[in-house]
Amino acid sequence: MPIHCKYCNSTDFRISRLRMKDLARLMIFHYPVRCWVCRERIYMSVLQMLRLRRDEKLRRDNGLNVNKIQPS
Q1: Dist. CA 61–CA 37, nearest whole Å
Q2: Residue ranges per domain, the chain?
Q3: Residues 20, 10: Cα–Cα separation, whole Å
């Protein structure tokens, strides 16, 4: 079940940078992410963040593969 942004209802997120104030949230396994659409910062569980990270890596790898193709 995808997480929705509470500000714009989007399901597109990226991993946000950690800040000192995030340490307390990390202790309860919440990780900061940022919405691609409205750029608001929210927290999701670490397991969801790991899935997001895997998906970002796949997108990045697929993008690199596309760029490596030389036109004939």
Answers
A1: 22
A2: 13-67
A3: 27
Q: What is the pLDDT of residue 65?
A: 44
Per residue in 2-36, pLDDT tens? 788 999 999 888 889 999 999 999 999 999 999 99
d(CA 50, CA 27) in angstroms, rounded, equals 16
Write the DSSP assignment of the chain as a string of letters.
-----TTT----EEEPPP-GGGHHHHHTTEEEEEETTT--EEEEEHHHHHHHHHHHHHHHHHHHHHHHPPP-
How remote is the C-alpha of 25 from its chain's centroid? 16
Asked whether the whole model's pTM tops 0.90, one would answer: no
- 63 is written with which tokens? 């993008």
State residue 3's pLDDT score.
82
